Amino acid sequence: MDFQFDIGARLKAMRSAAGLSQRQLAERANVPHAQISNVEKNKVSPSVSTLRRILSGVGVSMADFFEPEREVPPGPFFEADQLLDLTSKIAVNAIGEGTGRMAFRQIGDARSHNLQILHEVYEPGADTGETLLQHPSSEGGYVVEGELEVTVDSEIRVLRAGEAYLFDSRQPHRFRNPSDNRTIVISACTPPYL
C-alpha cells in the first residue's frame, strides 16, 4: 500500500484547477470550511465518506482522484492486479473515523458500464465514517467472509457471511466492521458513486 500519496496537495490542485476557493468547495460539498483546509494541509485524513463528499464538490470520482492516468482494461475479464484501488492511499484516522483499514477495489470502468462493482475488505474496526453516505444510486452487496454492520437510515443490522443487503442509496447509510476479524464483501452500485 502506498501511504506517500499527498491527499492534501492533490485536493488543493483539483480545487484550484476548478477555480474554487476553499469556502466555495465546502459549500458545494456540504462540509465545514475548516474540513477542506484541514484536509489540504494534511492535518486530518478524511474517511471514505468525507473524501467522497468533498470530491463531489469538484465532480471527481475517487478513481480519478487517486489514479487519473491509469488505463482501465476493457475486459470482459480482469486479473487480480487489474482491479482499480480506490482506498489504500487513505490513511487511517482514529479520531471519530474508525480505526481499521479498508480496501475497495473496482472491477473495470464503472462509468462506461454505469455500474460499479467492488471487492471490499474491512479490517477489524474499519468504518466508512461517522458522516453517513448518501447519493442518487441503488446499491447491494453480499458478505463473503466476516461481519458487516450496515446502517440504512435508522435501521442497523450486523450481516454475516452469506447474508446480503440492497437499498436506495439516497437513504443515509454507513458500513462498519464491528468484529475482531477481517470482513470481505462484493458490492455493486448503479450509477457508480465512488
UniProtKB/TrEMBL annotation:
Keywords: DNA-binding
One MF annotation (Gene Ontology) recorded for this entry: DNA-binding transcription factor activity
GO cellular component, one term: cytosol
SMART domains: HTH_XRE
Protein's UniProt keywords contain Cytoplasm: no
Superkingdom in the source lineage: Bacteria
InterPro entries: Cro/C1-type_HTH (IPR001387), Cupin_2 (IPR013096), Lambda_DNA-bd_dom_sf (IPR010982), RmlC-like_jellyroll (IPR014710), RmlC_Cupin_sf (IPR011051), TransReg_Diox_bact_type (IPR050807)
Keyword DNA-binding annotated: yes
UniProt xrefs under Gene3D superfamilies: Jelly Rolls, lambda repressor-like DNA-binding domains
Stretches assigned to the HTH cro/C1-type domain: 11-65
Entry protein name: Transcriptional regulator
Organism the protein comes from: Tianweitania populi
